Amino acid sequence: MNHCLALISPRTLSIADYIALAIYFALNIGIGWWCARRKKASSNDFFLGGGRITWWAAAISFFATATSSITFMAVPAKTYSTDWLSFGSAPAQALAGILMGFCFAGLFRKLNLTTVYGYLEKRFDKRVRLAGAGLGIMMKVAGRMSVVLLLPSLALATVTGMNVYISIMLMGIVTTIYAMEGGFEAVIWTDVLQAGVMLIGVGIALYFAFQGVPDGLSGIVREATGAGKLNAISWDFDLTKPTVWVFVGLFFYTIFSQVSDQPLMQRLLAVANSSEARRTILWGNVIGLGSAVVFFFTGTALWAFYVANPDRLAPGLPNDAIFPYFIANELPAGVVGVIIAGLFAAAMGALSSILNSTAAVVVTDFHPLWRANATDAQRLRLARLSTALCGLCATAMASFLAWRNVASLWDEFIKLMALFGGGFPGVFALGLLSRRANSTGVIIGLVASILVTAWIQMATNTSVFLHGFVAFGTCMIVGYISSLVFKCRRSITPSLAGLTVWDLERQSKSVTPTVLSDEKNR
User: Fold this and answer.
1) Which of 297, 247, 287 is nearest to 86 (CA)?
2) Would you say residue 522 has pLDDT above 60?
3) How wide is the angle at C-alpha 58 spanned by C-alphas 56 and 61, nearest 5°?
4) Taking each helix axis from N to C terminus, what angle separates 439-459 and 409-421, rounded to the nearest 10 degrees?
5) Against a cut of 0.90, is the pTM above it?
């Protein structure tokens, strides 16, 4: 990647740019300091904000966590080089997320969980919980966090000429320190700030892109339509391309991939009640869908800008660098700092959320294995240590991806997610939708999903949007059949009251007599 970036003339940031960045970072630090003074030094505050999270802030944080620098850079790069056929992923995921919230938010709220993997132990056993927690950490740290770190580092290297590996290390270290010192409440409120800065930054960039194209917005739409750059729907039955049929699979996969996503579900678990949890998920997905339109159109606008101004485009520029290249070369002093702040905001919102949720998984799901009676102070110390170690691992993985010089970071990200964790939503689906699924069966299904997905990625040209559904479907089919073959003995089968969609009524009936009895005793 360094040899490609050498083709770009770096632009030194002006004093105005540094002032804009300084104000942005000062606001983040100020919010963190304010939240630190408000919160108690407890693990509940560190992981769930002590029950003080309002639903609308959680919804914005939900959007910021799901967005990150992957959307900020890789999505515009995709539409710059191709068209809008990949856009179908946005409504498919948003509708799936909304359906998930209305179907399962209440169920998870009633279980009083800190991490979603606690559900797996209640529904299956400790083996499944630990397998889910381990794969969840691997998927976030080795997959998502590494790409989130790499993309803003690429932008910083493009703008300032700094070596991309040094940029990765700086971003990784600074974000890790921030996540260690802040708690969940600080993560939420800085996400609100960062979402605003990110969208303002994209809006400013679009304004300058419009100015460089004859007839502005209408000119961009006219040129893009004539060149087929706005093609957004394909009904071809071709699983190697982003078609409607591929996104149907993505829809079903996303329902349970959001259920199994600890950073997203942490927002659901942190608000006051089930009604607020549903609003959080609904508006988080609605904001995400609207922003997807903006980010997809940004790539189209950049394409139209450089069609109108071909002499301004450096030869051999890698697609993933197109947005930071535009920022560095086409925007005035001061404005560059605002856009870079937006890029940092996109990365920091996702990174801090993942680090905090990973620490929650380590402390809640793994720590009791060797210290079941740990004090709350010990849990807090482990949470901060886990944050540091995960940040270092993500930094190393991001450096590896930079060395590989992949053609499309977005495609690589989707493949990593499908391979490391694509099958695990199938475990949640089997647990929630089937009474017959058991721990042995779902573990066999999970292993099968990894093997089948690896084969799909190495031996076929199937669209990357379908890889997650392949993993999900393999886990469900193999897991269900294996559960029928390897039936658990009745004596070790857990009670299913309140753990599947078929047993919610049974849970309410089993709880009501206890409540009445307690009232009589009073």
Assistant:
1) 247
2) no
3) 115
4) 150
5) no
Percent of the chain with pLDDT over 90: 16
**Count of residues in the chain:** 522
What b/e string do you get for 218-251 counting C-beta neighbours within 10 Å, with b at 16 or more? eebbebbeeeebbeeebeeeebebbbebbbebbb
Q: Considering only CA atoms, which of 249, 342, 256 is closest in space to residue 295?
A: 342
416-448 pLDDT per residue, tens: 777 777 788 889 999 999 888 998 999 999 899
Q: How far apart are alpha carbons 252 and 61 in whole angstroms?
A: 24
CB atoms inside a 10 Å sphere around CB 512: 10
Q: What is the CA radius of gyration of the chain?
A: 23
pLDDT for position 512: 39
365 part of a folded domain: yes
- Quote the domain boundaries for residue 101: 2-421
Q: For residue 212, which phi and psi values (nearest 5 degrees)?
A: -95, 5
Establish if 459 belongs to a structural domain.
Answer: no
Instruction: List the structure tokens of 87.
Output: 């856009």
Number of domains making up the chain: 1
Report the CATH number that the domain containing residue 65 is assigned in CATH. 1.20.1730.10
Q: How far apart are CA 369 and CA 8, in angstroms?
A: 51
CA distance linking residue 153 with residue 414, whole number of Å:
19
Q: What is the pLDDT of residues 493-520, one digit of tens each?
A: 457 777 887 766 555 444 433 333 333 3
Q: Is residue 438 part of a domain?
A: no
Instruction: pLDDT band for 10, please (50, 70, 90 cuts).
Output: low
Three-class secondary structure assignment of 382-444: HHHHHHHHHHHHHHHHHHHHHHHCCCCHHHHHHHHHHHHHCCHHHHHHHHHHCCCCCHHHHHH
Question: Sorting pLDDT into bands at 50, 70 and 90, what band is 294?
Answer: very high
* Domain assignment present for 501: no
**DSSP assignment string, 299-331:** HHHHHHHHHH-GGGSPTT--GGGHHHHHHHHHS
pLDDT beyond 90 at 215: no
User: What is the distance between the alpha carbons of residues 21 and 150, in angstroms, rounded to a whole number?
Assistant: 19
Which contiguous run of DSSP H or E holds residue 452?
Answer: helix 439-459
pLDDT tens-digit profile of 51-74? 778 999 999 999 988 877 667 777
Q: Which residue has the tokens 């080089």?
A: 81
520 exposed, middle or buried (CB, 10 Å; 0-12, 13-18, 19+)?
Answer: exposed
